[in-house]
User: Fold this.
Amino acid sequence: MARIEGVDVPSYDFEVDLQALVKAAQGTAESVQLFKDKDVEDLVPTEGDVGVDEVWDALDEFKDRWERGMNNLVKDVEEVAGRLGKIAMNYAEFDKAGNETLNAVAKDVETLRIMD
Assistant:
C-alpha cells in the first residue's frame, strides 16, 4: 500500500497476461474433455483377450484403481480450469473498471481551466 497525504492507498502495480491466463483455462478445460471422452476400459484388454483368470483378476483390479485415480485427477483438473477462468474474468472486470475510472478522470481534467 502506498501512503498519500496520510491516507493508505492500495497499490495496483502488477501485470497480468490476460491472454495467457485465458489460454491456460481453455487448455485445461480441453484436457479434461479429452479424459472424459475416453474411458480407461477403452485402453485395456478385455477378459476374453487375456484368457487367464488370475491375470484378468489382477488386470481388472488395476483397471478399477486406474479409473478411480483418473476420475479424481479429472475432477481436480476441472476445478483448476474453472478457477483459472474465474481469475481471468476477475482481472478482465478489474481492467474494465480501471479504464472506465481513468476515462472519467480524463474527461474531468479536460474541462479544467487552470490559467486564462
About this structure: The mean pLDDT is 86.
